[in-house]
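hey so u asked for the seq, here:
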Amino acid sequence: MIAIITGATSGFGRASAIRLARLGYDVIITGRRSERLAELATEIEGQYGRKVYILCFDIRNREACEKAWESLPEEWREVDVLMNNAGLAACSEPIGEASLDDFDRMIDTNVKGLLYFFQQVIPVMKARKKGMIINLSSIAGVEVYPNGNVYCATKHAVSALTKAMRIDLLPYGIRVGSISPGAAETEFSLVRFKGDADKAKAVYKGMIPLNAEDIADIVEFMVTRPEHVMINDVLVTPARQANTYVYNRE
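ran it, structure tokens below
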């Protein structure tokens, strides 16, 4: 069995790659930070004895996505699971004050990057008439919140694309689902606040947020269902989070 996980250098992607390896998958891990990919590959190969193939590229670059896929040896192309995990929030300002560069970065990563890589993998799944796609969305793809604007729009797009994929790929036996986490402590807030650790930490003040292992648990549940079962969409939040902006903090 082979799984591809995009954005595997940290957070949900890293934890899910390890979990899938534990379940017996050989894994293709992608990301922009080569040293982190190498460290992850060493850990998976050493602890779980699974094969790892590294693709280091920027998912926002269409040509880079195509070249990355073309570089894969034939024996790595019969993919069983594709986890479209790469994504980010790049700003936290009201829509009239935020940077257009940040908007481009989110749209290019969260939406176009997902489609660029999906477009490479899907012909193989269609030819085999089997496979599973897990799109990493967000509670921001279900609801919106103040200053979420374009990030929320991109995750609404992921939710819509998931539903569209599910319809279009149904005749090929390809199962398509999404995971939509609420507040989760990974590198997400650190990236959003441009490396400001104090602001990032404040997001989770007075509560226990989700973590990467929580999402890997859901990935494991999804991929271990019998072939006649598909977990279409999972919305998961910390116990102290009611929606995108209502929390019960200590």
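Residues 142 and 156 are 7 Å apart (CA to CA). Residues 2-236 form a domain with the Rossmann fold fold (CATH 3.40.50.720).
lmk if thats what u needed
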